Amino acid sequence: MEPPWFKNAAIYCIAVETFRDANADGWGDLAGLTEALGYLEELGVDCLWLEPFYPSPMRDNGYDVADHRGVHPRIGTLADFDHLIAEANRRGIAVLVDLVVNHTSVEHPWFRSARADPGSEYRDYYIWTDEPQAHREPNAMPTEQDSPWTYDEAAGRWYLHRFYAHEPDLNVANPRVRQEIRATMEFWLERGVTGFRVDASQFLVQKLAETGDSDPHRLLREMRAIVSRCRTDGVLLAEADVEIDQLQAFFGNDDEMHLLFNFYLDANLFLALARKRADPVSRILGQLPAVPRGGHWANFVRNQDELNLSHLSDEERDEVFEAFAPREQERIFGRGIRRRLPPMLEGDRRRIELVYSLLLSLPGVPVIGYGDELGMGDDLELAERYSVRTPMQWSPAANAGFSETTTEAPLRPVIARGPFAYERLNVEAQLADEHSLLRWFQRALRLRRERTEIGLGESRMLETGDPTVIAQLCERDRRGLLTIHNLSDEPRAVTLATFEPAGPPEELLADDDYAPVDGGRLELHPYGYRWVGWG
Predict the structure, then answer these.
(1) What does the alpha-carbon distance between residue 60 and residue 163 come to, in Å, rounded to a whole number?
(2) Check: CATH 3.30.565.10 for 458-534?
């Protein structure tokens, strides 16, 4: 049996409304994204993950959904979506969309009916109580919401919300709600999506468990069955931010989620960068549960949320804060950092390449956020997580080439000041420069696709004898790849006693021109990396 296609893929995350504006109204749209597919194909993207583009008041980046089976009128139409899917498929690019079924917007017709009428058929679509103190639940936004319960004057009761008060939780224990979820999935699968990124999947399971359900993971298995029935290549990518001993359950017996975001690796990667030591990464890789044959980890450096450090100890989290977010305004929710990677690394190209080289070479599927390939910065003047959700920087033209609007301001301001300003950092300039970060990403993504041993082979860490150096060996079908990364700001030389390539080693990717590999001895510059392949 052939391994799943996604194991050798790279996923690119896009917020459509901030990516590219085709009709000059200040909002990115599906037509603009369709126009940019050639750029994404050339970049080396295999799969797009589209953040919510549904009708919404847009108080939470579209995750406050008001209609699960439509398109926000400023973003496009269903016909635009169908055209996007057709063009993406023509280029061999799969498309995942966000499945946001933990909650809705307060503006959703279901909730408007539920709050207005106790006898409404939608009343039990949500979770209500008369005594919130007796049913307190953790809130995902601890510094923004005092309680996960909000009193609704119209309903005369309190409703549950794990996130913002304007996002009431759906009652997934209700069979009618689960039928709505099935209908939503089938709607988008019939329109050609390859699968879904399942938002807040841990809360879906938790809510079923709280009702006394003896099988709280059954909803995830139902989702898997729907996707498998509609598409043999279907994929479920889950946000499951749970304790490490609970992760295996979200894979199930290869019958739940295909991919899980690797929050533990991400947090420990930044701890390793702060310490300039390899052991946080090698240690957590050894602690993660084994993945089933049909599953894998989805690895990322940054996404469009905060850098979540909640799985580190208080002392470890303080180390990362001190290194990369020393100011309070750079932090969020008491657990995370609301910055993109390049500003955290002070724009140091060596370190930026090092981090993404490591991401692309580790076991799992790499997930890249829009603009990462340019080294885009952030805007800390914007509230909360919007700091990392600024418009894509296409050119030095007005509005960063994101929008040609002359009558309306863009949905969000472009970065116009400092070292990450759009006039100096944009797609147009980097395409013209063979040594740009964008060109580096093109080469690295192409190489990763060609070296299938990374995604499909067997991987193991090698002993380097140096606490600052990470070495990994991937092998498949008599081909092998050694990747080695120096996290320190000093040159290192290591000898890999167990490095025995099955053929002449060839330098495939590196931060500089190094002397040919001599046995198991390899030299590395400060923040240096090397990919050495054979076969």
Answers:
(1) 10
(2) no
